[in-house]
Amino acid sequence: MKSLIVYCSEYKSNTEKIARIFAEKTDCELINIRNVKDVSDINIENYNLIGFGSGVYRESISPKLVKLVDKLNLTGKNVFVFSTSGAGMKYYNNNLIKLLDKKAAIYRGSFACKGSFNAREFTDKKIFEFMGKLSEGHPNDRDLKKAEKFFATVLDSL
Ligand SMILES: Cc1cc2nc3c(=O)[nH]c(=O)nc-3n(C[C@H](O)[C@H](O)[C@H](O)COP(=O)(O)O)c2cc1C
């Protein structure tokens, strides 16, 4: 079975690390959204399972990824969602999950973990500085193991 992962990882390639873990486990193509000029660049007919991944930027996963998902015909496709963020919360995946549901895709689960960031680069709010400290070194080996486990459960659910 062939799978596809479309991801946005424009800050520190944290999300790309997770995408690569999934790709190592199956016959899986990785597409960095940076290289997508038009939705027609992606031929989803070839894939039975499609993962969408993104870093979280200002409380939201990449709007570019959301727009792209909205343009794809995902009816009856098995899909999953993953993100990395300073907070590492699955909550950030919810908007994309809702959209996938609206598009009649078959939702197979969601994964999130922390991704390191340097708060000083974009804010002087103390709360972000604290969050940045907690996110140091992530995704780490434990996160990668968890991602691997998550992916195994997605495959088992097919
Ligand atoms: C401009 C910017 C805004 C961010 N905003 C948030 C945020 O609102 N919440 C959060 O938990 N993390 C936030 N982060 C941290 C990123 O989500 C985290 O570093 C993530 O792993 C980046 O993924 P990437 O390296 O794949 O792009 C932000 C990072 C940047 C650069």
TrEMBL record:
<dbReference type="Pfam" id="PF12724">
    <property type="entry name" value="Flavodoxin_5"/>
</dbReference>
<dbReference type="GO" id="GO:0070819">
    <property type="term" value="F:menaquinone-dependent protoporphyrinogen oxidase activity"/>
</dbReference>
<dbReference type="InterPro" id="IPR052200">
    <property type="entry name" value="Protoporphyrinogen_IX_DH"/>
</dbReference>
<feature type="domain" description="Flavodoxin-like">
    <location>
        <begin position="4"/>
        <end position="135"/>
    </location>
</feature>
<protein>
    <recommendedName>
        <fullName>Flavodoxin-like domain-containing protein</fullName>
    </recommendedName>
</protein>
<dbReference type="InterPro" id="IPR029039">
    <property type="entry name" value="Flavoprotein-like_sf"/>
</dbReference>
<dbReference type="InterPro" id="IPR026816">
    <property type="entry name" value="Flavodoxin_dom"/>
</dbReference>
<dbReference type="GO" id="GO:0010181">
    <property type="term" value="F:FMN binding"/>
</dbReference>
<dbReference type="InterPro" id="IPR008254">
    <property type="entry name" value="Flavodoxin/NO_synth"/>
</dbReference>
<dbReference type="GO" id="GO:0006783">
    <property type="term" value="P:heme biosynthetic process"/>
</dbReference>
